[in-house]
Amino acid sequence: MLIGAIGDDFTGSGDLANMIARAGLDTRLYAGDLPARAGTEAVAVVALKTRTLPVAEAVAQSRAAVGWLKRQGAGRILFKYCSTFDSTPEGNIGPVAEALAEDLGAGKVLFVPSFPETGRTVYQGHLFVGDRLLSESPLADHPLTPMTDPDLRRWLGLQTRQPVTHLPLATLRGPDAAAALARLDGRFVIADAIDDGDIDRLGLLARDASLVTGGSAIGAGLARALGADGPAYRSWTGSDGPAILLSGSCSAATLGQIAAYAGPKRLLTAGEALAADGDTIRTMADWALAQTEPALIAASQPPEMVRAVQRAHGRERVAVAIEDVFARLARLLRDKGATRFVVAGGETSGAVATALGIASFDVGPEIAPGVPALAAGPLRLALKSGNFGGPDFFAAAAAVLAGEAAS
Predict the structure, then answer these.
(1) Tens of pLDDT along 343-376?
(2) In whole angstroms, what is the distance from residue 312 CA to residue 309 CA?
(3) What is the reported pLDDT for 175?
(4) 44 - beta bridge partners?
């Protein structure tokens, strides 16, 4: 196994698996209980749900997954988090990286959140979303991990006891970046990167490291550094069964995609989720399956409405209730014959995949940058980070899961 990877949420892990498979290494995504032995894949990605867990739980789950990957013979470990560095001043990126660095005896550890293809870049240690600093983007209003400081050196420094330093763009592109990296003071290194050439330079720097961290792009850069030379998707066939669209994401991109979707739509309010019983779930499932076009059920709302609901009912209580409704709904819809699930939002995707009892996925073609089509037995799924995909994502994803070529 060339690379063993862990991701801190389901959608991000699928994103990483897609990027590495697209680069050319055979990749499998594990999402449930880990088997005693992995298959013959060159890369195994373990999807965790640790982004917003208490720090101690996130660290424990990450250590356990990396221990399994090392027992499978993984030559290097990649810790994947969101390209917008979603975390709080308390963690979890810093504490998890610190624990893994200790377990693996890692020296310098690169932090490479940049994903140039989706507009996430780091320059002078500051994270940009498009042409805006992270703190001026919609991520500043994220309901769970509001990113109010674009200086990743400072943000990571709040989360770890390790000294944090910076690999500037000019140094990365200089004549001897490896020697310059070795001379830097500090174990944790925020790396600048603004295009795919920079990602490949960082992949070469990290090729022999025991631990590298970052967004999905560095997975592809590392794969290319290890000799990958073209897509390595597993054989893919779609499903013509009923398609269901579920959204718990409140990102600006997903809200726009919901507005653009021309098919049948139903809003799941916080009040409905908190009071939902078996009859509520059955009514929603029957409504969805009765539609002639894929039905969209969304708990997505603008940030100001989300904050009002959280103040009224409690953030965790609302989040758990919405995830529970989507989990029960997905199980019932599968039992009633649905075979295609398009899910927006990391927490929602995790809840759905867990509820469906999926242990691992084959990685199929890319639907949109960062979003692969996934297969698990008769089921076909698209698990999307809230910020990814174009305006027509929901209709396009349902079509790809049916076996149509991505546009």
Answers:
(1) 998 889 989 999 999 999 999 889 998 899 999 9
(2) 5
(3) 93
(4) 4, 28
Q: What distances in angstroms separate CA 299 from CA 246, 316, 319, one per listed residue?
A: 8, 15, 10
Q: Which residues, other chains included, contact 45 with Cβ-Cβ below 8 Å and sequence gap of 6+?
A: 5, 6, 7, 13, 16, 17, 20, 27, 28, 29, 30, 80
User: Bigger pLDDT: 387 or 404?
Assistant: 404
pLDDT mean over 323-331? 95
Task: Report d(CA 17, CA 372) in Å as an integer.
Answer: 8
The pLDDT confidence band at residue 395, using thresholds 50, 70 and 90, is: very high
Distance CA 289, CA 244 (A): 8
CA nearest 156: which of 225, 199, 98?
Answer: 98
Range 373-386 burial, b when 16+ CB lie within 10 A, else e: bbbbeebbbbbbbb
Whole-number average pLDDT of the chain = 93
Burial class (CB in 10 A: 0-12, 13-18, 19+), 37: exposed
What is the spatial distance between Cα 249 and Cα 263, in angstroms, rounded to a whole number? 18
pLDDT per residue as tens digits for the range 208-231: 999 999 999 999 999 999 999 888
- Calpha distance 138→106 (Å, rounded): 34
Nearest to residue 351, comparing CAs of 391, 296, 299, 277?
299
| pLDDT of 269 over the 80 cut | yes
Cα gap 275→350, rounded to integer Å? 22
Two tokens at 349? 């995707």
Q: Length of the chain in residues, anyone?
A: 407
Q: How far apart are CA 272 and CA 15, in angstroms?
A: 31
